[in-house]
Records
---
Amino acid sequence: MKIGIVGYQSSGKSTLFAWLSGTDADPSLAHTGQTAAVEVLDPRIAQLAEIYQPKKITHANLQLVDTPGLEKGSSGNAAHLSLIREAGCLVHVVDAFSGDDPLSQLNSFDEDLLLADLEIVSRRVEKLTESVKKPRPSREEEQAELEALGPVLARLEEGKPLAGMELSPLQQRATRSFQLLTEKPQFVIFNLGDDGDIASKLLEALGKATQGVAFSVGLSAELAEMDEADREEFAEEMGGVTAEREPLLLKLMQASGQQLFFTAGEKEVRSWMIRHGATAGEAAGGIHSDLERGFVRAETMSCDDLFRLGSEREIKANGLMRREVRDYVVQEGDILHILAST
Ligand SMILES: Nc1nc2c(ncn2[C@@H]2O[C@H](COP(=O)(O)OP(=O)(O)OP(=O)(O)O)[C@@H](O)[C@H]2O)c(=O)[nH]1
Ligand SMILES: [Mg+2]
């Protein structure tokens, strides 16, 4: 899944992208967006490595996309919005360093996204309304689509994002190809200047429904470049406005509705990313399509149990190695060993 770094112009998106991915944002890709795969380093990998002493360690990747900034006051550049549409989750970088009110920027950006969705849905509804008047074989289908889109349109007209709305299967089908922006999970980063005092006020204003953090992207990136000795001193001097890369990546992963599971053996210890609610069969498919096709069972234990007991042998002795079937819903932190017939 792609995580789109979005926001108004000059809010610090490319600075965030460069810091998190370790690659400089390429200015020649400013209009098309730039993608990087970023390793998510979960601390449990080191614990697993200690137990299994593997030959190889591999980390799951997060796909980050640096998108061009939207222009304030314009209703959104269609080409830029279409790039954002491809992302499964939006990380909204808000300028909280220049003196421009961050909360009104946040609201107006959300409004821009909402208006873009509203335009798409209302255009489709208008088209269907005309179309169902004509006696055509597709009429019944179009009537059903029109009825499905009614409540979606009404919600957008009320100014509410689709993210909190329970969509019926028919509504999901009717909206899927639109890749609506307000349906995507959002994570907010208030990009602070060197003053951290406003952080708590900003985060409070976000409310419970939206996750977010407040720190200085620029200073965090600078800090990452320093050697260890200077780093601590600088971080202290900056009064806690900097953030650490690894925990932030884990937060972004969680916000995007994904989680980690692990595979562990003498050959390799590895983390994998799958969506919340995914089954053991899907997890197997993420590793290799052959494993999904020939899936027999998933021998499963949890990291917590393993770290507590110290070895797989102890896990088995305590009856904590489970045999799960294809439909088993994978839990965050599961260690899976997939058995498949080939
Ligand atoms: N004071 C301060 N300035 C920042 C910070 N982050 C970015 N900037 C400045 O904001 C300007 C834009 O930064 P970028 O990261 O290129 O912003 P962007 O969001 O990618 O901009 P566009 O791609 O043009 O939309 C640069 O001049 C940065 O130096 C920050 O944390 N603090
Ligand atoms: Mg940029």
---
Amino acid sequence: MQEIIVVGGGAGGLELVSKLSRTLGKAGEARITLVDLSRTHVWKPLLHEVAAGVIDKNSDGVDYGIHAVRLGYQFQLGTMNHIDHLQKTIHLDAILDDDNEVLLKERTLKYDYLVLAVGSVSNDFGTPGIAQHSYFLDSLLQAERFHKSLLNQLLKLNQQADNSSQLKIAIVGGGATGTELAAELHHVANLAKSYGMPDMSSARLSISILEAGPSILPALPQRIAHSARSALAKLGVEVLENTRVSSAEKGVFITTEQKRIEADLLVWAAGVKAPDFIQKMGIFETNRAQQVLVNEFLQSTLSPDIYVIGDCCGFKQADGSWVPPRAQSAHQMASTAANNLINSFKNKPLKGYHYVDYGSLVHLSKYSTVGSLMGSLMNSSMFIEGRLARLVYVSLYNMHQFSVHGWFKGFLVLLSRKVSNIVGSKLKLH
Ligand SMILES: Cc1cc2nc3c(=O)[nH]c(=O)nc-3n(C[C@H](O)[C@H](O)[C@H](O)COP(=O)(O)OP(=O)(O)OC[C@H]3O[C@@H](n4cnc5c(N)ncnc54)[C@H](O)[C@@H]3O)c2cc1C
């Protein structure tokens, strides 16, 4: 039986594994294995909500081990650090327990087809001090780490007799992650009042967004940026555009103009690149964002047996631009790669990938959702906001749940999420 290994069970990888398990896996034509360095999947666009503490990995995450048993694929917990494309093997690091004892030894797995779906990490562009002093939202672990610090800071502030003292948070990057996080933090400071911190409110939070370019949300139409800017202004979030950070020290971002922006929590959310190990392996052709270059079928230029999808995939479009690192790109690539793998097994021709931009949405917590939907006519886009925008935003996540769990289980998962939203705690306190 042929072996298909998918490395990375994120927005793209988990959807791909689910589809392959229901088709090639179920038909006994291939053994499907998922490798991920984490035990739990949380859809990455929700990470800022994990960081703020409004969602919980236990109710909103997918346990890979359980999902694998249900869909009939193998799950290997581990970090891939090496690919031998000639021997067609991958190598996973050993896993250590809390006492630094080896829990799982290093492993070498053999594949017939490999799919790289390892996502992206924050790009600090080598800016001095950023890696040491900032929080990032690249993974569940990092989001949880930020959440812990946030709670500690809120508790500390709540204890202080002086009601005028504030918790300062500075976020570098005015993209979707930075703006959505700012709004969510505002919401959480108000929630904290009902969760044992009576002296807490958003008035005690001072949030700044530092954006190097002339406008926040640079990848989106100006009307969306304008709308988001006004919504953030209403929340008292300070938006500093044309502000480039050139270094960081403990508790301070320093701009190119030598302005010092002090904060209790520093967050870096300015751009992404494919993980460094891809570049270090030295076997793939990559672009400036370290993404692996692929052909029209999403096969790496190194080998047709290695597909690449999602944020780590460098797919150049006809107009010379790269497909953007978004959940919708990962979703579409997962679908193309799954169909091409199935077609390979059936000796049918492969299909080319074509990115369709359905628009973008920015969800500013409970306050506002703004975005654009792409029309099919002349690539026109329609501005949407309010309930409609919120509905479309939520439906993106729902589609992911349906892809991963199937329609019936997906519906139950969404229902249970709704119930836990009503009866459960609105703020995670640990
Ligand atoms: C806070 C935030 C908000 C966002 N909001 C939006 C949004 O509103 N709309 C939108 O379209 N996009 C959004 N994005 C971007 C979107 O989340 C990504 O484009 C999408 O998740 C990419 O999917 P992926 O499958 O490529 O990678 P990911 O979903 O990141 O999954 C990668 C997986 O690979 C695993 N992995 C990594 N390295 C290894 C290794 N060496 N070995 C084994 N496993 C490994 C990781 O554990 C992870 O499970 C947001 C991102 C963030 C951080």
